[in-house]
Amino acid sequence: MKPLCDLPSLRSFHMVLPAAALLVLAGCGNSPDPAPPPTSAVPAAPEGARQGYVSGDMVSAGNVFMNKEGKGYVVLSADGDAAASVLHVVDKSGGRRVPGGPFVSLTYERMQELPLRALSATTAAGSYSAMVGGKAAQFTVAADGVITAGASDCKVSGKIDYAAGYGGAVGLSLTVAACGTVANGGYAGIAAAPVERAPASLQLIGENGSVVVDVLAFK
């Protein structure tokens, strides 16, 4: 018997197909694309936030934010004080490296707890200033996490998602416009409040699939 999606065989029927059959036909050949394969191998890590040395990539100073489901972020920079330049978006043992490149296998060394200040709707709400791509930006964070751009030419907006936890960090979506060297458009990542970044009140880290943006925001 020929498959239902074989259109020539269907033409041999001298009848009108019922609506249900037409719906089946509409789905033929339209199965969703498989998820892309990981571009990094990431060691297992317990829930929480940790910092230390990460070998296997171009840069090695790392902060690791993981939730109990094994999802999280490995944030890498040239040293502990530099802005993040590489991000691994982690799902259990597999990672998606931003920016893209050859497959890498990470190893954690000398990891220790990363002290974080509590981040909540109450503590994060307020007015902020930041430098984004070499341009000054002002924005506000509302109690519901909505980020609204201020009067500055560099516009930063988006949302902090307190329900999406990653070991003390929370989910973040950002939209950036006219901010110097940072490309316009949307970024996804995390918001955190590492003690080591004081006097900055927030660290916003995101990626757009090609580049990483790391913003320190001051109240």
Short key terms for the protein model shown above:
mainly beta; globular; 8-stranded antiparallel beta barrel; single chain; 3 helices; 16 strands; 219 residues
Written overview of the protein:
With 219 residues, the protein is mainly beta. It is built from three helices and 16 strands. It has helices spanning 7-11, 19-27, 121-124; strands spanning 40-41, 48-55, 61-66, 71-77, 86-91, 94-98, 104-105, 107-113, 126-132, 135-141, 146-149, 155-166, 169-177, 185-192, 202-207, 212-218. The strands form two sheets. It has an eight-stranded mixed beta sheet, with no helix packed on it. Strands 9-10-11-12-13-14-15-16 form an eight-stranded antiparallel beta barrel. β2 and β3 form a beta hairpin.
